[in-house]
């Protein structure tokens, strides 16, 4: 006999963990499935530990389960929070800098304390319809197993379940570049000659040792990379990562990019003792697929601060589309006072009854997605999807027939900030 769960959440990243915790806290029997050995996704395994944004214009706009996890992680690490009242500082200074391994451990505790079950090192092998719910084949180290679910939350980051079901997904040819997070040491910036480094860089590009697209800033290139100690400062363009084969190529390309940069830098005066003090095993991926949902959030919806009738959370981040051609970024801050919102219908594949997504695969156009995809917004979406999934199963109805006011009230009761 297959194990039956009310809700199965696929993916234990920024969106998946709050989804599973919220579902379980509502009394639904919940299973969280994660392909890696640690929860947290981009925040932990990919090393993007600057988590944001929870605050806008000096006030908190995203709270709930994601904020609970981040706050607990910061408290345990003894790390101070940013000054959120100083909202005029650069947006990245308002992000919360968690310690990845502590954050992963906190997520372990929160998931298990909620009553949810957790399977790490596990992926979805197949998914099919079973009555009003789903049959899911899981692939673990021991082989294949089957579970059934009343509802699924696809928080895989790539809409894997949606894709396996053959439902429509959107993508583009020129996906945003990835980034491999590293931490460099063994040098002092005051010992370096910026002008000489710029000359060496241009020569390396001319002879093909480096590519201008290797760095996340075309204007500042090597100097910015060294100033950041390599953290979130490289680009890996021309990759796709929606399948395991594509992801393999992306990981290989990311490490080749790092090796190219490291070999160049190591040969420069003042960098002879350069070392890699730490790295994230997984290349950070900004973009693969988005779903075709009941509604689509456009950049005009996002930048106008439209309040949707079925709103489940705020989102707050500037338009932030990384491009590969000039190793640059299409960046546009939001107008003063604007705080975007995200609707439940953007988390529901069109026409589906017991399937939701959460995180960067929400139904959105490309520019809106470049902002809404970030961790704090994904955490808020995940909590909304987890609540909707549990309530739909408990009420034996479609997620499209849920009383939106009940969903919103439930989220507020569990600490989330819901507009309206």
Characterization of the model:
This protein is of the alpha/beta class. The chain has 11 helices and 19 strands. Strands 1, 2, 7, 8, 9, 10 and 19 form a 7-stranded mixed β-sheet that branches. The chain has a two-stranded antiparallel sheet with strand order 3-6. A two-stranded antiparallel ribbon has the order 4-5. Strand 4 (55-56) and strand 5 form a beta hairpin. The protein is globular and about 70 Å long.
Helices and strands in order:
Layout: E1 3-10, H1 16-25, E2 30-33, E3 50-51, E4 55-56, E5 59-60, H2 64-77, E6 96-97, H3 100-114, E7 117-119, E8 123-130, E9 133-140, E10 143-154, H4 160-164, E11 169-170, E12 182-185, H5 194-206, H6 221-227, H7 244-266, E13 275-279, E14 290-291, H8 299-304, E15 311-314, E16 319-323, E17 328-332, E18 341-343, E19 355-357, H9 366-372, H10 375-395, H11 404-413
Parallel strand pairs: 1-2, 1-10, 2-7, 10-19
Antiparallel strand pairs: 3-6, 4-5, 8-9, 9-10, 11-14, 12-13, 15-18, 16-17
Helix pairs in contact: 1-3, 1-10, 2-3, 2-10, 10-11
